[in-house]
Amino acid sequence: MKEQEYEAKEEVLIRVYFKENASLENVTDFKKWGNIWYEIGRGIAMVHNAAPENVRIVGATSGSIVIEMAAVASIASTTSIIILSALKVAERVIDILKKVEELRNLKLNNEKLLNGLEKEAQKKKETGINKIADEIIRKLGLNSEGEGDKINALKKSVTNLVNFIESGGEVDFIIPEQDLEESEEAEGTEKLTEGHIDYTKIKETARQIRELEHKMKALEGPADHNEDD
Q: Where are the domains of the chain?
C-alpha cells in the first residue's frame, strides 16, 4: 500500500516487521502475535483516552511479513518512545544471554554460574520494563489511584513490546510529509505549544530505533536480515 493512500492529518504509519522468533509462519503464530499486538495497541491507546480501534491496520506486505498500521500521532509518539527504550533493555538482556550461550558451548560444568547469569538477564528485563512504564506514567501524568486500569494495560503493552523486540521483531515509523514540515517550521517558536505533537522528535526517535535494531543484529551475529526496511 502506498503511504499517500492512508495518510490523514496527525496520523503516523507504524510498520511492524515480523521476523526471526517473531515471524508469522502459520495461523497459530498469527493468532499469538495478533493477540500480543492487540494488547500493545489497547494499552497505549487507553493511556491516551482512546480505543484500540484508533490503531488501524491499513496494509500488509509479503516476504518478510510486514503489517502497516496507522495511529494518531500521540499514540505513535508514545509507542516510539517505548520501543526505543525496549531496544535498550533487549540489547542488555541479549548481551547477557549471548555470554550464557558461549559458556554453554565451552561445555563448562558450572550450572550455578549459568543460572546466575540467566537470572541476571531476567532481572534486567523486569527492571527495564518497570522503568519504561514508570517513565510513560510520569510523562502522561497518570494517577495510580484513579487510573489503575490504564497503568496495568500500559505495563502489559510495554512487556509485550519488549518481548516482541527481543524475539527479533522490528518496528518503524513513517510520518506524513505535511505534518513533518509543519513541525520543522514551528520548531523553536511559540507555535510548538505543549499540546502540539513534535513530529521531528518522532522522526529522530525512529532514526535511533533503526540504529539500535542494526546494532542488535550485529550483536546477535550473522542472520537473514533484510536491509530493504
A: 3-183+193-220
